[in-house]
Specification:
Chain lengths: ~260, ~260
């Protein structure tokens, strides 16, 4: 008589290691900033080969869950990551590249988050208006280049998100910005009348800051939506993926 | 004379392989649904060991950029992933576990995205109102359990996001839901008067659907915000991480 045995369904060992480490995180026993035991110690504790531990850790590094810090001190080694900004950015950028998401999709989500940020801000006692105006002064300076303006524009929007005291909101905003950074820069560079275009962006930003100062949330939200949507309409043909695919790799934080 | 040479700064080979594959994505030469060459072919083309190729692919699998499909047919093998829902969920859940984000952070972002979804929906000619009412009928059925209600609640909110025709919005919503799914279920189960609590949720959902049917976007957004925030206020002490850390692993899609 022949036995009719189905194959044993067994995940690769490194996946079991990942699963065990994830459960430690979900259970709150591994927190951001904690240091993982070394490869040998993990291998002994878990009863698996060092190769399996290494593979698991590489996968967690790809997810930006674990960061390797050089050196031998107490803050070196494999540290649990505090914020997945780069992982989020990478994921979004890759999926714009894979055409899972269009730039229009990203813009619509960005508008929602920007609206959330300014709504939160107008409810706060203190807003760093001086910091925002200082960024806009730099952006309004004669001779500002598209590259400088793109960077200052990012800082302006990220400052609003950061001041809203919601790290997920700020990280999402950063990721969405990063995902379209090179496309935006291409669009800036292609403007036939760059100084006028830059001045328009600064004026729209100033109006948003004024609305924040007046604690007029509805106006600030409306101005922000108009600002992002007008920008997108003006440059949509240049920032859709495909149009800029060849240069998008420049901004790859891991390239 | 001794030469004083600094060490060569060289990324591990598997990282170079990842970088090359990412650049193919950014350049639009690898799209969702495409099949990667096999391990041997990649190893020959890139001039690296098969072990390096394997490590790179495992890291890309951890990021849900590549999916392994079993079998030998034309749709099997290593396929470029179409949607990073699971990767986004994992990332958010892990970072709730790592205490990078609080459930309050997630809820605030979720409210923004829900508002975006209903705003988009009221501008559409067709909304699947019947489908939404059918879900609510099932949620209003006598004897509905917290587990069933949680699932139906998720389907309701995801249906709104999906109908907004923005895959990123839908994927973010799914990821945010997944990240707090077990915490929400704990909160449902702990309600002292579950039938009344469930009826309240259904009534709030019905009001949102009515506002959508009337194409009253402002009302729909307000009702949605009130609904999510009221729910959060009612159960906040149960769904903050730490309170539910021990059970959160149950819902791990990879556990």
């Amino acid at each position: 008589m022949d036995l009719d045995l189905a194959p044993v369904d067994r995940a690769p060992t490194y996946e079991l290691v990942i699963s065990r480490l994830k459960n430690e995180i979900f259970a709150g026993r591994l927190r951001a900033g904690d240091r993982l035991p070394g490869e040998r110690q993990l291998s002994e504790q878990l009863g698996v080969s060092r190769a399996s531990v290494r593979e698991a850790i590489r996968a967690l590094q790809a997810l930006e869950i674990v960061n390797a810090r050089p050196g031998n001190g107490p803050t070196s080694g494999l540290i649990m990551t505090a914020r997945p900004r780069i992982a989020l950015s990478n994921l979004l950028r890759l999926h714009v590249g894979l055409a899972s998401y269009s730039v229009a999709d990203l813009m619509a989500v960005r508008v929602s988050l920007e609206a959330q940020a300014v709504t939160t801000l107008v409810a706060k006692d203190h807003i760093d208006l001086d910091g925002l105006h200082a960024l806009l002064d730099r952006m309004a300076a004669p001779g500002v280049t598209p590259d400088e303006a793109q960077d200052l524009d990012a800082q302006f929007h990220l400052s609003l998100a950061s001041q809203a005291d919601n790290p997920l909101l700020a990280d999402m905003m950063q990721a969405l910005r990063d995902a379209i950074a090179t496309s935006m820069l291409d669009a800036f560079r292609a403007q036939p009348d760059w100084p006028a275009f830059a001045a328009g962006i600064v004026a729209e930003h100033r109006a948003i800051v004024d609305a924040l100062e007046a604690r007029d949330g509805a106006l600030a939200v409306r101005l922000m939506r108009d600002h992002v949507e007008a920008f997108y309409d003006a440059v949509a043909d240049r920032i859709e993926p495909g149009a800029t695919g060849a240069t998008a790799a420049i901004g790859d934080p891991e390239a």
